[in-house]
Input
Amino acid sequence: MQTRPKILLIGTGGTITAQKIDGAWTPGKFSEIDLLHFIPEIESLAQIDTINLFNIDSVCMQPKYWVTIAQTIQNEYDNYDGFVISHGTDTLHYTASALSFLIQNLTKPIVLTGSMVPPHVIGTDARRNLTDAVRVAAETNIHEVVIVFNRKILRGNRTKKFREVEFDAYQSIGLQPIGIIEQDIRYTGVSYFNRSLSDRPHFFDKMELEVCIQKITPGYNPEIIAKLREIGYKGIVTEGFGAGNIPIYENSLIEEIEAATDAKIPVIVCSQCAIGFSWMDLYESGKMALNAGAIPGYDMISETAMVKLMWILGNFPNFSMQEIRAKILEDVAGEISNIKSPKEKRAWEYAF
Output
């Protein structure tokens, strides 16, 4: 008889563990053991052990918890064939991005999932999502951090939450799903990491906390960036207009970008378009920001850029600004492509 794969289910809370208390959904009231009992057929797919790290609403997720999850996987890495993390949906994509940087050179799947509706409510998506997540962890050789949700397998650091209550909550930006889960797991042709089992992962254990995202708006006061510098922020991600454009006349940000760069505070400029790239050399405003020291985000999602910057500053504290810039633009875990001009942009969004 063929041995079932061994999977570790790591619980962090979220709607998938919620029950209604005083009229409001309260995460963490339904344990991972309860989930397995709720879906008894899931254990025919794998030998599943559980560990509960947190019982929180994911809006309460903290960077130090990302490190705890990564350290838990490091401690158990040789004991399991894959890992599933149950998580609240609001910050699930932040955690997925963080794990893609904290755990590199993976040789096993790490799968994050959750639900939009609690398990015991009629019509819940918890049963389907958790079953699909275990299938991906047990049956595939996708050796990276992925989000499995609503039948889709999505690269964790290329995915954003688009909808607040609908089942189809997540969408990859700049990349099709890796696969679709139906009766069989069907691959779309998107390349994914598949390494030799003889390779060893590389674990990191630090994240710089003083990094933030700023959304530029008409009338945005550049002194905000000055204040961030004054109170000790080490890195800033800005969501510029359109193709990464920023104000350069009234309320110009150029001087503050220069001041931040001189203070060794990297400023990454992403696009605030829901489906957009940062092509900062297209317009005068973008070029002036580049000349002032801004770093283009290209097709990195702003949340991913923020988490990546936290990882870089935390683990490479002696990097020069040139080295920080090079690492930001390096494809570390599939989070940024080699597409550096609009002519190369794929028509990916029309495929699904």
Observations:
- The radius of gyration is 21 Å.
- The chain has a mean pLDDT of 93.
- DSSP finds nine helices and 18 strands in the chain.
